[in-house]
Amino acid sequence: MCALSMFLVGVDTTIVNVALPAIGRGLGTDTRGLEWAVDAYTVVLAGLLIASGALADRFGRRRVFRIGLVLFGAASLACAFAPSLGFLIAARAVQGAGASMLSPVALAIVVSAMPDPRERARAIGIWASVFGLSMAAGPVAGGALIGAFGWRSVFWINAPVVAAALVLVALFVPESRGQRARPIDLPGQVLLILALSASVGVLIEAPRLGRTSPWVLAGCAAAVAAAAGFAAVERRRAEPLMDLALFRRPPFAAAVLGAAAVFTALTATLLLGTFHLQHGLGRTPLAAGLATLPMALGATVCAPRAGRMAGRSGPRRPLLLAGAFTAAGGLCGAAVGLGGGSGVLPLLAANLLAGIGFGFANAPLTNTAVGGLPPSRAGVAGAITSTARQVGSAVGIAVAGGLVADAAPAALAGASRPGWLLVAGCGLVLLLAARASRAAAAPRA
């Protein structure tokens, strides 16, 4: 069930990426509107992950999990019927709220069911490899569905998965609750979503409005004020939404930054590759989906290996490999269009290397975040790391989309180059996380 929930959330991220050009044509919107359609999902998902975990501890994990599945499925159907961009964005936000009730519950089950560090590391590696499978299924299935039935079918595909998950939950998942229910931090929750929304809005709209536009400056001020207010509120609460004291541990802070970096690289790679193939070269959605198979293969093969490596010798070695491969993938992507030709081979190489980097990164980052913490704090640490992943996804879409939004097909490779260099920079961040992971404390009671 943990793996199925991860598969559902992952497929919905990747399947929409390859569908963006078709959605734009169908709804008559530009690239920046499409960015909002993607980031409405990731921002709400990021903002509600921790609160959803607290709700599950209070009201029951199976109950919240089922509510999340129903909400996710209903919102998927609403996306399929969307008559306009605004309706699609709203439905995607509701979809993100449903998805937020799936991931934290799944991670809590994995961590509590696997108390042995090595066994838990292997289990998280398998869990992470399922995301690699979702990466393969998402773009390829999305490309095939769009070619056969149109872009709306990418949302219909969620219905049978949700139906199967609801049946399996009813049959196999017992109800459970946290040992002590945490109170809901409503002020912190509101300020967190405001800070994330304002930050992503600035990243999306600044290239169009100009960095000195009054709207952009107001957005920056709102993001800073909300972030400062969030920090002030969290420091005063006895049981905050986000335990900021965890960031005093260098391994934890590095793991959170690394989680954001690896998902920034992942989503930027997917979007830049999709737009190069469909807008720049005129390839079909199916061809764009098939081009992501090297990424999916690298992630699927390397994720369980990274879990075994982390369980056997710690997270440093797989994180070093993750950083090196991610940086190499970004440099390969930056070479697209430099040597003439279509640039498909450098793009395939970039997808493979980025997928290998992603596969090696996910499990050791999670283990670094929760390592050295007592069980009572491990769930919160995992939820913060999951939030960082979704923030990274939103940033990757916003930055990469802003770079290619107004580029003509012939100029797309050059416009994408800063985005590929950002991917390479994310690899360097992972190398720093590997260095910090050596300072991970021993488990405490």
Structural account:
This protein is an all-alpha fold and 445 residues long. It contains 17 helices and no strands. The chain is globular, with a radius of gyration of 20 Å.
How would you describe this structure in keywords?
17 helices, 445 residues, 2 domains, Growth Hormone, Chain: A, disordered C terminus, globular, mainly alpha, transmembrane
Strand count, sense and barrel status of the largest sheet are: none
Q: What is the strand tally?
A: 0
How many domain regions? 2
Overall pLDDT: 82
What radius of gyration results from the CA coordinates? Answer: 20 Å
Can you summarize this structure?
With 445 residues, the protein is an all-alpha fold.
Write the topology of this structure.
Elements: H1 2-27, H2 31-59, H3 61-80, H4 85-100, H5 103-113, H6 117-149, H7 153-156, H8 158-172, H9 186-209, H10 214-236, H11 250-280, H12 285-290, H13 293-313, H14 316-334, H15 344-370, H16 375-404, H17 412-437
Helix pairs in contact: 1-2, 1-5, 1-6, 1-8, 1-11, 2-3, 2-4, 2-5, 2-9, 2-16, 3-4, 3-8, 5-16, 6-13, 6-15, 9-10, 9-16, 11-15, 11-16, 11-17, 13-15, 14-15, 14-17, 15-16, 15-17, 16-17
